[in-house]
Structures are given as C-alpha cells and as structure tokens.
Request: fold
Amino acid sequence: MNKLLLVVGFTVAGIGAANAQKDSTQKPFKMVADKIIAQVGDKIILKSDIFNAIADYKRQGEEAVLPENPECAFLEGQLIQKALVLQANKDSLTVPDDELEAMLDNQIRGFIQAYGGKEQLEEIAGKSVYQIKEDLKEPFRERKLADQMRGNVLNAVKITPNEVKAYFEKIPKDSLAYYESELEVSQVILLPKANKDVEEYVTRELYELKRKVESGQQKFEALAKLYTEDPGSKETGGQYRLNRNDKQWDPTFFNAAFKLKEGQISPVIKSKFGFHIIQMVSRAGDDALIRHILRIPAVTDEEVNAAKVKLDSFATMIRKGDVTFGEIVNKHSDDEGSKFNGGAITGRDGGTYINIDQLDKETVLLIKEMKVGDVSNAVAYTDERGRKAVRIIYLKTRTNPHVENLRDDYNKISARALEFKKQTTLEKWFKEHLPNYFITIDSDFGNCQNIEEFRKAAEAAKSVSSN
Reply:
C-alpha cells in the first residue's frame, strides 16, 4: 500500500462536476455509467464515486500530483476508508452529532463562498442546501470514523534513536538528500499607530461617505470600489459573506456587522485593520451578506521613528541578557502569525528551518552580516499588506550546505522514520484484519497492483462463498 494512498482524501464529488457543465471554459464533465465496483462488508463503492472524485481533483488544480493510475489510487483510498469504518463500528467509535453538523456547516460555507452565494450553489448542485448537507452527512461521518480508527491504530507508534539510526543506515549513500544552507530566523514586529488627528480625519471621511449613501446620493458598492483600502473586497464593492460560527474575523468588526438590520449602515468602527463603515445587505439566520469600506489612517515618519526607538531599546535589553527575545515577542509583537511561536519565520512546510530564498529581500540584506545569536537594530519596512512596520531580527541558527546526516538533520530523519514505521504498522494491521471482511472488487480493476492485499481477501471471500 503506497503511503500516498493511505492518506488520500476523497473530494466531495458532484458539485464540481455539475459546475463544469455550466462553465464553457472547461471541458464538459463526462458522466460514467454507474455500477458497484467494490464492496467491503456492507459498504459499497460506485464507479461514479471514483471518476467524479478524480474529475474534481483535476479541477482543483491538483492534476500534476495525480498518480500514474488515478483510478487505482482513488479506489485504494476508498477500500482503506471502508475497512477502517467497519472496524470503527465494531469498536463502537462514534462521531458526535454536533461535531458532524459543524463539519457540514463549514463545508457548505466553503461551497457558498466558492460559488458566489447560496442561490448559485443550489442552482449548480440542482439541490437545496439542506439536501446537499444530507447527501454529505454519511460520507463525512465515514471519513471522520476512518480518521479516528487510523488514529487508534497509530497513536501508540513511537520511534527510538536506535530505530532512527537503523532507518538512516538503510538509505543508499547516493540517495541522501543535499541541503542548501538553512536558517532559523525570528522577528519582533511593531505596527506604528497613526496619531489622533489623522484618525479623526479618517473618521470624518467615513461619516461623510455614510451620509451620501443614506441620503441616496451614492450607492455603497460604488463608494467601496472608489475608497476602500481592503484589496480583498475592492473589486466586489466591499462585499463579504459572514456566518456567526466563523472565527477568523476581527471580533469588533464581526460583532458590529451582526448588530445591523438589513440596509442599515454602522457607525464608524475601529478594528485591528483600520476604520470601517459596514452595510448589512441581507441576512438569513446565521448567514449575512455585508459590504464595508476600510480606511487605514496614514502613519507618518514620526510614528515610525518612535517605534524604531522602542525596538532598539528592546534589542539592547536582549543583548545584555536582561530579557529573552521570546519574552519581547510575547509581550510586544504585533505580528499575530508568529506571536505565539517565539517570532519564528516559518517555511512552506510550517517548520522553522528555512532557505534564504524564502525570506524577503530586506531580511536577506539584514542578516547578511549577522552571526548566529545576533539581534539586529530596528529597521522600517512595508509589509505584505502595504502597512508601514518596524522590526528587529534574531538569527538563531545557520547551517552550512551539506549532505544529509544524523548530526545535522536528526529531526527530519526522525520524522521520516516515524512515518515509515506508521506506514508499516498500518499495512500490518490491514493484513491482519482484511480476512475478517467480505470484499469484492470488479474485474475492470484487475490491473491495479496497489490493491493486491484487498484482492487476495476478495479471492478468499469468493472461495468461501463458493464452498
């Protein structure tokens, strides 16, 4: 069983397929003649399950990473899931109804966001939102049960240093990875605040825009396209869809929006992003369609310089040993993305070791002359959202280019060794449990080498039934 296939997730088929039929820029979705192609216990797998899922996967831009025989890969994924679900049922594992509802609601909100609204989603799917949720309920329950069962099998799997060493020694020398220089870099970021006079000016501007809408002189959408400083909603006239269960929104902004009645415009509110006015466009229960205009008070050189002085004083304290870099991050950093991991800049894989090409140009220039353990002076820069900011940098580690070895790369090797051990454990579990299940596989999939263990179990089940 290939490692990829043990974790392959089934995309929710059907909605994407229907959408492709309505999108003239995509090839029409070719419906397949449906039939049962496999069965594990009382769990069946349809031909359409496999081909619709592959079609959805391609439409999501993932075609480049599809295995050579995607039909075999997706069939294995479903065979694995069905077997895990059967065992989960035997072991009396359950999915709480409230957890299942939360998962379904989150998926539906994702669909609504992707397709531009509830009405568009229902038109594309040819079903009501309630019917879509009902159709997804059992697949979601099965996926969650399979995850729980997999967790029960693998949670106790640990790796020892001797096992890591043994795993590493089996890697052919000419297959060892070559690592460029890697760094661990942390930062404390301050976002200078505009002075009160500028904030009051921006507030007056927003109240004037609010007056123009309420007097009928202008449409809120048109003013948002002209004046909002939110790049994420400028082209749509400041529009966003909200749900009361969403957690990613600024609380002040979110609460102000849900206090509004349809058509009403909020007073000027201040969030962590700046100053807003919000219009409630429509409301249906916990779902709301709103528009907003964001204005960000300009920060002057005076505020930037004050922030630099403050950070330079922190850098001096760190160098003297009066306080640690992490303590300054926790108490003073305005960067929510790194505030709770010591200010570490993380790579694409979420790890703290990064290549120099993953740093912005200003940081690269800053650390060029730094030694490991150095803390930089404060420097001003413009962040990815166009805000003026100030930061100090801490260079924690810097590795030299090297061939993979246990001394420098133990954590990476250990993680791979653990995954290999989990893979082996799961394969062993399946070999022990598959004979307990009634399995059938359609002859059309006879060339799928990756499901050989399932095929053996199917042959055994066929032999028993014929006797």
Observations:
- Residues 3-155+437-466 form a domain with the Triger factor/SurA peptide-binding fold fold (CATH 1.10.4030).
- Residues 2-14, 16-32 have pLDDT under 50 and may be disordered.
